[in-house]
């Protein structure tokens, strides 16, 4: 409905029970509390009025059971009753109820209306605006508004509307009477058919159970425990976080997606660039240690030596720059190739997954794989390998150049390397696990954002 003119003023808080129930991927109790403080007496009265006690007995952990993504392990009526219980527990001043009894059975609907919505229910002192097609509740309403083609055609009490014999309300009641009569005939036929099928099934199961009764005469409950345990494991299972070192097959898988030819080409180019860097350092060391500049050599000899060393350094510098440029371009191409192949494989697995996979895996975790984790693969993994290779080569060339000029430096390298490796043992473990925990913490954010959009729609 849209307001075309006039003003709308609301006094007090408002609670909405939408026609499409909104539930979170959390426990049943947390869905009802919705961040409010837990009051045991109030909570028990609300769940009893909303006819949820029998449902709690069927769940593995009662009201502490996880209900799964979008309430996957709940029926439509259970989700609607949880949504209604959340609104009732919120204790608002005004309640907007959008056909809250459409997804429940007739006897459950009567129980909820009598104990929650009706004149003697928990909301008897609240303002209740309920949209419904059920004519059985109309006589209990204080005021009835008839909507026709999106506009209010008439309003009044139940008795006053019945007096307008040609009104939309009376026409609606007549149409519903004819419809209900046809539905009742169909329901009676279905009831007879289901009763016959049930009788046959019961007789067969009775013979089967007699053969499977344990020796002590007590009925076997092992099967029911297995079902409950499976449900508990499926819907209460948290995303697992790896611990320890990253297995080598993870890196091998990345290089496999990159391609053998691309991997060998990148390795060759980085070795070439490292060779030029090492040669540059050695050439500079030779220049500084040349005796021509120390002895009383002629200016022409010194000039020739300078030109020789400058030419060599220029050639080595140009070679190193060219090798680094070629390696950077090749690395960018290889990383794009690897990222594309990984994304294709991930997308293919998701598209070919069974529907039960999406029932037990939260949507936030799947979105996290395609967003945050994919971004890490695109921009983090490949260039981290490059930085590792460059740092290693720079370290080797630097140490090689120093040892070439000062061989006694090896005495200082050994304790420095030992201290560095000792510190790395603690740093790498901590940094690696923090990255894993950070990746896991992103999944609930995506899930919450998706649930919020689902609820706002």
Automatic annotation (TrEMBL):
Pfam families: ABC_membrane, ABC_tran
Entries under SUPFAM superfamilies matching the protein: ABC transporter transmembrane region, P-loop containing nucleoside triphosphate hydrolases
Gene Ontology CC entries for this record: endomembrane system; membrane
Residues passing through the membrane, by range: 264-289, 309-336, 376-396, 402-423
GO MF annotations, alphabetized: ABC-type transporter activity; ATP binding; ATP hydrolysis activity
Origin: domain of life: Eukaryota
Every ABC transporter domain range: 1-174
Domain ABC transmembrane type-1: 264-457
Spans annotated as Disordered: 200-234
Keyword set, alphabetical order: ATP-binding, Membrane, Nucleotide-binding, Repeat, Transmembrane, Transmembrane helix, Transport
Database matches in InterPro entries: ABC1_TM_dom, ABC1_TM_sf, ABC_transporter-like_ATP-bd, ABC_transporter_C-like, P-loop_NTPase
Subcellular location: Endomembrane system
Gene3D superfamilies the UniProt entry points to: ABC transporter type 1, transmembrane domain (1.20.1560.10), P-loop containing nucleotide triphosphate hydrolases (3.40.50.300)
Keyword Transport appears in the UniProt entry: yes
Membrane topology annotation: Multi-pass membrane protein
Protein name per Swiss-Prot or TrEMBL: Uncharacterized protein
Annotated source species: Bugula neritina (Brown bryozoan)
């Amino acid at each position: 409905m849209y307001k075309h003119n006039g003003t709308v003023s609301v006094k007090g808080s408002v609670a909405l029970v939408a026609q499409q129930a909104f539930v979170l991927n959390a426990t049943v109790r947390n869905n009802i509390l919705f961040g409010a403080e837990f009051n045991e007496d109030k909570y028990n009265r609300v769940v009893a009025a909303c006819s949820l006690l029998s449902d709690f007995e069927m769940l593995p952990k009662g009201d502490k059971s996880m209900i799964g993504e979008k309430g996957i392990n709940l029926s439509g009526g259970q989700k609607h009753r949880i949504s209604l219980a959340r609104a009732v527990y919120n204790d608002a001043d005004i309640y907007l109820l959008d056909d809250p009894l459409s997804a429940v059975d007739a006897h459950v609907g009567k129980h909820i209306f009598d104990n929650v919505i009706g004149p003697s229910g928990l909301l008897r002192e609240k303002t209740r605006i309920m949209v419904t097609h059920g004519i059985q509740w109309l006589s209990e309403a204080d005021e009835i508004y008839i909507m026709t083609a999106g506009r209010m055609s008439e309003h009044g009490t139940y008795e006053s509307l019945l007096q307008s014999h040609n009104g939309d309300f009376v026409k609606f009641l007549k149409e519903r009477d004819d419809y209900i009569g046809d539905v009742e005939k169909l329901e009676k036929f279905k009831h007879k058919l289901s009763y016959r099928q049930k009788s046959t099934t019961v007789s067969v199961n009775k013979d089967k159970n007699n053969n499977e009764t344990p020796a002590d005469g007590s009925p076997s409950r092992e099967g029911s425990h297995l079902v409950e345990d499976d449900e508990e494991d499926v819907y209460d299972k948290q995303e697992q976080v790896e611990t320890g070192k990253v297995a080598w097959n993870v890196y091998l898988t990345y290089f496999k997606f990159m391609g053998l030819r691309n991997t060998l080409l990148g390795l060759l180019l980085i070795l070439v660039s490292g060779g030029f860097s090492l040669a540059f350092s050695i050439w500079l060391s030779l220049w500084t240690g040349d005796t021509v500049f120390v002895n009383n050599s002629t200016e022409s000899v010194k000039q020739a030596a300078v030109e020789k060393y400058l030419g060599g350094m220029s050639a080595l510098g140009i070679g190193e720059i060219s090798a680094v440029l070629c390696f950077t371009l090749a690395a960018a191409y290889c990383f794009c190739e690897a990222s594309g192949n990984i994304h294709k494989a991930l997308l293919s697995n998701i598209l070919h997954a069974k529907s039960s996979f999406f029932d037990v895996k939260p949507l936030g975790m799947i979105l996290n794989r395609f967003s945050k984790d994919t971004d890490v693969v695109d921009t983090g993994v490949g260039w981290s390998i490059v930085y590792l290779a460059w740092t290693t080569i720079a370290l080797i060339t630097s140490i090689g150049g120093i040892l070439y000029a000062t061989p006694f430096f090896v005495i200082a390298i050994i304790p420095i390397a030992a201290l560095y490796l000792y510190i790395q043992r603690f740093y790498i473990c901590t940094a690696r696990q923090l990255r894993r925990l950070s990746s896991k913490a992103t999944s609930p954010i995506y899930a919450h954002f998706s649930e919020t959009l689902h609820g706002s729609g």
